[in-house]
Amino acid sequence: MENWLKKRVLLSPNKIAIQAGNTKLTFKEVSDRVAVLTARLANKSRKGMRVALLTNNTIDGYLMILSLQQLGCEIVFLNKRLSHEELQYQLEDAAVSLLIYDESL
């Protein structure tokens, strides 16, 4: 898959990419934040690794998705409404190697 984010940064770095509430991020800002997250995750994950993600629908959650995609990880999205037992089953059934979660959940 072509890296659309890098392409958008080259074509329109200062255009708004994401807006949530009063927060607005340009494509350049999104790219910079994704680069930082990707660097942090690089030693914990690898291409093809299954990573579970349990997060609210926030800008930070979206940036995490983009970072995991940059690394070539397979993302297993978890539903915060599931019980502990249901989440445990999904983690085991999907053979997840890493769980990333929002501490506010």
From TrEMBL:
InterPro entries: AMP-dep_synth/lig_dom, ANL_N_sf, ATP-dep_AMP-bd_enzyme. Residues 9-100 form the AMP-dependent synthetase/ligase domain. Gene3D superfamilies: N-terminal domain of ligase-like. It holds the Pfam family AMP-binding. It comes from the Bacteria. This is AMP-binding protein. The lineage of its organism: Bacteria, Bacillati, Bacillota, Bacilli, Lactobacillales.
